[in-house]
Each structure stands twice: as C-alpha cells, then as structure tokens.
Amino acid sequence: MKKRSRRNLVPALILLAVGSYFLAQQLGMDIPFAGTILSWPSVLVIAGLFFLSQGYSQREDGQVFTGAATLGLGLYFHAVYTFDLWSIHWSHFTLIFGIAFLLKYRYSRRDGWIPGIILIGISLFSLFFQGSVRLIQETLGAASQFWPVILIGLGLYLLFLRKK
Questions:
Q1: How many domains does the chain have?
Q2: What is the span of the domain harbouring residue 56?
Q3: Distance from C-alpha of 94 to C-alpha of 87, rounded to nearest angstrom
Q4: What confidence tier does 132 reach under pLDDT thresholds 50, 70, 90?
Q5: Torsions phi, psi of 130, nearest 5?
Q6: 108, 63 Cβ separation under 8 angstroms
C-alpha cells in the first residue's frame, strides 16, 4: 500500500461507515445493535483504536498511551452502561491508566513502568480490600485531618523551594 493511501485509510473507512449507516437508515433498513454501536462509549473505542494504530504505525509512544487509555475507557463504559456488568469505582480508572502506562513502556522502553505498576497496585489494593481507605483513616486517627495540609505543603515545596 502506498504511503499516501495508508494515510487516508482511516478517514475513508469512517466516511464509508457513516455514509452506509445513513443510506441504510434512508432506505428504511433495520440496523441491528444500532443503539450500542452509535453510543458515546463506541466513539471512545473507535478513537482509542485510531490512536493505537497511529501510535504503532508512526512509532509514537504518546499516541500508544492515549489510544490505550481511550480504548480502555470506552470498553469500561460499554461494560458499565451498555451491558450493566459492574458498577463505577474509582479504582477501575487507575487500573485502566496503569495498563496504558505499561503498554507505553512496552512499546518505548523508556517511560511508564513505575507509574503503571504504582497505579495497578493501588487499583488492586482498593479492589480486593474494599475497606482499605476506612482502615487507613481509622489507623491514622486524628492525623488523617492533616493530609490536605501536608499535600499542600509538599506542592508548595515542589513549586518554590526544590532546586532543579
């Protein structure tokens, strides 16, 4: 395939799919799973696949990360809203982004390994130990009130006092 025609492949396929859908609708044809296919999570899945294919073909690890995260979010929201498989929990999002970081690392061998492992670890800890946040708060007791102040202090330190 020529380089120019490969570059036009994705927009051409999108135009063919959208045009076919509208033509079938005008002809009165019943399109199976139209509600599922034309939902907003499907847009995320398609965009994620697009970014992944662009990232792998152009060797850009940033697009691999974006594609993996977008594809993961699209599949997750399909599982939640379309198929009603599980409920929304914050640890699912950190798991998706952790996997995206690991895919980026697998591709580039530069960045993403440590954040990926940390995010997946946080996710697994939260998923398998549902009372973990409550347990930490009870263990720390009164000191848990000062976490916002500690975080603000660390942020100010990083912004103004840390030498480069």
A1: 1
A2: 3-161
A3: 15
A4: low
A5: -60, -35
A6: no
